[in-house]
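Hey team,

Filing this mostly as a record. A colleague (T.K.) asked me to run one chain through the structure pipeline before their review meeting, and I want the input and output archived in the tracker in case anyone asks later how it was produced. No errors, nothing strange. Just documentation.

Input sequence:
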Amino acid sequence: MQKPSIFKYLLLLIFVGFIVGSCESNPKKNKNIEPVEESSEAYTLVWADEFDGTGKPKSANWAYETGFIRNNERQYYTDNSKNVRLEDGFLIIEAHKEKVTNKAFVSEEADNWMKNKEFGEYSSASLTTKDITEWKYGKISVRAKLPKGTGTWPAIWMLGENWKEVGWPKCGEIDIMEHVGYQNDSIFGTVHTESFNHIKGTEVGKSVFIENPYDNFHEYSIEWTPEKIVFILDGNAYHQFENLNKTYAEWPFDQAFHLKLNLAIGGSWGGQKGIDDSIFPQQMIIDYARVYQKE
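Output structure:
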């Protein structure tokens, strides 16, 4: 058999090198996502809940919002184990289609929507660290699997510590993750302030494609400094809000904020396409919540 020439060997080596190079493993990136810049300072874990054990979440970490709370949502929040519990190393927030007595009911003629409904049509849960633990700056990460179906509105978000004193939106709001069931391939990261909020139509946010949010866990995070808030999905940044003009109306984020985890049903956003009652019960399953700060 005739031996290949040196020229043919060189061609073979070039071809093999091209094939090997093109098959190197690269992280799969979601649409519209850019890599996160490396932080110049190391983060240290300062608070965490891994949701181990059984029963209720730790009272040292979480309180509950109960009743009708906001956004004309249809669920009545409870602290019942049916709606919130620890199970197999996870926090379960579970929504049900059921009749729930509204303890704040006054009459059907009451002006306040939270007081003119004798019953709620759905039950769910909302957890908060308000009046327990709050943080100023840092990296906040929550790993979760989302509920599925039209009408669901899960959220991982934060409000400023002065919320009770100045109200919303002056207190500031950081939506680490919001999802509405009728947009099943998107999650949203948004800030609301006195200048930038959805009442004025000036909120600053961005949606990003997410793959299998119902079957797979994803990590939802922010990195928050005096200069900016970066929104991160599975270790990749997709949006940032910068402190440009240094005014409180635009940047109320130089104060401590508390964390909220909730599963809403219907409401001003989640209910825009109605509610599919065939989906219930639905669960938001949280693996961990962690807060890191720079040393």
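Quick notes for T.K.: The longest helix spans residues 6-22. The CA atoms of residues 183 and 262 lie 18 Å apart.
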